[in-house]
Design brief:
It is a single chain. The protein has 300 residues and is mainly α. It is 58% helix and 0% strand. The protein contains 17 helices and no strands. The radius of gyration is 24 Å and the shape is elongated.
Length: 300
């Protein structure tokens, strides 16, 4: 009898540990690209072509996939119009299985009535904007998707621009769908170069990201946002840690009208910049002073 009781206790412990680990993985993992996304993490397992954090199926034509403007109603329904008695947490829980099942495009999830109802709850002006921003950077991928869409809908969401720009490299593809739409429509500052300069390697390799970033660039440039070399230089000064090969790879995959202008701007910036490391191999660099500036002016 004692042995049987001991065995049952051990089995109960193992079962509890297993389901606890699953719940922790599901709700507590960082909102970052999944390990099954090509190029997402060094040393990651062999990539899969499916999944809400990864690339769309290789059988899909990226040009045929819906872009940032898809599934975006002109007027989002209010919480009352959705007529749901469920709470936000309950709706998010119901969306968990569809999220895991989606493997082609985020609109598979955003078009669902439960998703629309969840967004309507967060789009309510009575909900503090700070709460929505925190949701958009939450580790729960479904909550992050819902909150990101709410930022697109809300007319008061522009102050979230800085926080969202700082979160892009940590966000999943499915979440970036909403975050980039928010930046395209609501950003309170130039964002095209700040987005491009954050591009990790896998953005160019993903079937959706070049289209998403391209549509953001096209929308912002059409609204008058500068895309020239001066704008690129200003963004580079803010983000000097960017990786030029990753930016160039993403631009090579972007098929929008603004892409040639962005490439030319980056080329111009490269032609005019001073490569201090290379110059130091040739001679000594002297810091600019009033005296050296005057001497240079005298020789011109």
């Amino acid at each position: 009898m004692v042995v049987l009781t001991f065995v049952l206790a051990v089995l109960a412990f193992i079962a509890g540990a297993y389901w606890g680990a699953r719940l922790s993985r599901k709700r507590g993992q960082p909102d970052r690209p999944r390990a099954d996304l090509p190029g997402a993490d060094a040393g990651a397992p062999a990539p899969s072509s499916n999944g809400p954090g990864g690339a769309a199926s290789e059988r899909d034509d990226p040009e045929a996939l819906p872009g940032l403007s898809s599934e975006a109603p002109a007027e989002w329904p209010t919480a009352e119009e959705c007529s749901t008695a469920l709470t936000l947490d309950e709706l998010i829980e119901r969306l968990d299985a569809p999220y895991e099942a989606s493997n082609r495009h985020p609109s598979e999830l955003t078009a669902l009535p439960d998703f629309v109802a969840a967004v309507a709850l967060l789009a309510d002006p009575a909900v503090p904007l700070a709460q929505v921003i925190e949701g958009a950077v939450d580790a729960n991928p479904v909550r992050a998707m819902v909150a990101a869409e709410a930022l697109v809908v809300r007319g008061d969401s522009a102050p979230a621009t800085a926080r969202i720009l700082g979160h892009l490299r940590s966000a999943r593809i499915w979440t970036l769908y909403g975050l980039l739409r928010f930046l395209a429509r609501r950003a309170d500052r130039p964002v095209v170069w700040d987005v491009l300069l954050q591009a990790p390697e896998y953005w160019a390799e993903n079937a959706l990201m070049p289209q998403f970033v391209g549509e953001l660039a096209e929308a912002r440039v059409a609204e008058g946002e500068p895309a020239d070399a001066a704008a690129a230089a200003a963004a580079i000064a803010r983000r000097p840690e960017f990786r030029m090969p990753d930016v160039r790879a993403l631009l090579a995959r972007m098929r929008c009208e603004a892409t040639p202008r962005l490439r030319e701007a980056l080329d111009e910036w490269e032609r005019t910049r001073v490569d201090a490391a290379s110059l130091r191999q040739i001679g000594r660099l002297w810091p600019a002073t009033d005296e050296t500036a005057a001497a240079q002016a005298a020789t011109d």
